[in-house]
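Hi everyone, sorry if this is the wrong subforum. Our group has a chain we'd like a structural model of before ordering constructs, and none of us has done structure prediction before. Sequence below.
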Amino acid sequence: MDQSVNVQQPVNAPIRQLRTNRGLLKFLLLSLITFGIYGIVVMSHISEEINLVASPHDGKKTMHYCLVYFIFSWLTFGIVPLVWTHRLCSRMGNELKRRSIDYNFGAATFWLWGILGSLIVVGPFVYGHKFFKAQNLINADYNAKG
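Answer:
Right subforum, don't worry. Here is the predicted structure as tokens:
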């Protein structure tokens, strides 16, 4: 007689554990060493992760980063990456609110720190830090609650 234990996972259990250790310094250094390949891989993972985490709740789907980077960026003279990043940041901000995570991030962060902040040079670095922290918080909450 087989006495295997039947363990059921909660309904909202995470499909897989998502990374929660992304940081700006690591991203910049490894992107530099790999001539940008690491950055493409990380952003591809983030576009997949936000779909995994948020799509069941908001019904949206973020376009894969490779499509944006390799095809639409040069075809639209850089307009699509701006729109894509705006939508991604907005979606991340909405997910932070939906999960009741007390962290201020959204499309305004992208436009103010990432774009306008480039006038003071450090703005994109502040944006990058906030971006990775927001994604790490969302992923950690997903890993814990599903």
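For your construct planning: The two ends are 35 Å apart (CA to CA). The chain has six helices and no strands.
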